[in-house]
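User: quick one
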Amino acid sequence: MALKTAEVALAPVKSFDGPNGKKPKRVLSPRNIMLYGTLFVAAAYYLLPLYVMIVTSLKGMPEIRMGNIFSPPMEITFEPWVKAWATACTGLNCDGLSRGFWNSVRITVPSVIASIAIASVNGYALANWRFKGSELFFSILVIGAFIPYQVMIYPIVIVLRELGIYGTLTGLIIVHSIFGMPILTLLFRNYFASLPQELFKAARIDGAGFWQIFLKIMVPMSLPIFVVAMILQVTGIWNDFLFGVVFTRPEYYPMTVQLNNIVNSVQGVKEYNVNMAATILTGLVPLVVYFVSGRLFVRGIAAGAVKG
Amino acid sequence: MTGQAKAGRPNQLLRNLNSKIASIPMILTAVVIFLGGTVWTVFYSFTNSKLLPRLSFVGFDQYKRLWAAPRWIVSIENLAVYGVLSLIFSLVIGFTLAALMDQKIRFENAFRTIFLYPFALSFIVTGLVWQWVLNPEFGVQSVVRSLGWTSFTFDPLYTPSIVIYGVLIAALWQGTGLVMCLMLAGLRGIDEDIWKASRVDGIPMWKTYLFIVIPMMRPVFITTLVIIASGIVKVYDLVVAQTSGGPGISSEVPAKYVYDYMFQAQNLGQGFAASTMMLITVAIIIIPWAYLEFGGGRKRA
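Assistant: Done. Structure below.
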């Protein structure tokens, strides 16, 4: 090949550089300094806000007023964290973020289970049991993922009101299941379609039906994709703000909404340390999911990025 | 597959029935919520609904009022500035980071983790953190001033003319990690031989990227573009958390306009008209892409 001859032709020239015959790689070449320099600067930029959040949340208010936001705390105090969790005020309530946290848990857990259950069955039906019109409905569903939520919010308010569940957690759970459906269905449909068809056929010959094949063959074979879907949904639903504001009442506000209300409340002295502690607390669940799940998270968000 | 299913089994109807029953949630969502909801909103945008939706048609009045509203104009301008810049910067930064990460560097995992973690955080968290970092009394401005440069001014969130750039900084911090991941995946898909060939021919690296690799990554770029663009139109939480649309109305965005008119100003007609405009914007982005992806060439089955 032309490539190889060219490399050979270059070899003698390179051998002057040093004993290594192959391409010489100097550790401190200008290229490497540039490369790692840029990467470290970029990494510093991405890490800075996290650092600022943490140090601010550990300082007392006098120290914040004195120093700058980058200086490490002189006296570490956990009081802001306690206050953010237990006694910070939103409106009339002064029970901190804890209420929002438990609301978010009560919203996220059922929403994740419901949306994955529905979407996996949908995906399975679409991949293995197509019926007339199934692809059409699926297309509408996927196109729907691109429609701004604002366009559909009000009709949903009306539907939920008619059903008598507007403002309740149930209503919000249904909304999350609806909006999780396009991307999850797509995810499951593609995954089930990629499984060997022989398995499906064999099961049918053995007389297994729709649900039997799903529960006994498809689900056990698809645990990785279920995990990906779960990561996608947990982080997505936990981070949701718009639906939480629109579809629930203040006593059911999820953590993100409550956080925004605590920090951006106009009355009173701004307690920046409490605000930052509250912000970290709210970000903690998705961050833990992110660090624990690693590469699966990347797969999940790459699949679900359109949902953002 | 469908063909085989139709191979004259007696209980075919029953089996399809199961599948149909299982698909009821999907069908309802697609038809009632997505299709019905959208049509409903567009339909009611031609009425003068105030507190409650009602059927008294006023033609394009809501749209005329919308485009005469200074706040809407500001929202659109902001969206345009924010949109164009965040497209350019997230693609450039995302691609640059990905290209750097693709140089067989050490600690690749650590760097990737650092660049991507902001994406796990919500826009509310992102907005609040950057509100704090950009706070002129304590944040970057005061730090630089305390270093001796006392006239240094950097308070984007408090200056109407540049507030949208403050939002942009936060948005880029949150979103570029994802772009980097997508780009990195694209770069990893490039055949190693391309690099060898260009090295042999003595083409400088930047030229190889610009004229060979980037054109080869066209599908990745288009997908990323669509993802970023449809996110831009929806931008809402970030602005709410970071500036609440202020100072004044200088950082308003369309999504916030819709929400405020629907749920706070009790002026549903305006909200519907504004959200229809958002829908049109998204359609302008999506239709050409869908045509390229699924129409014309028929690349995907």
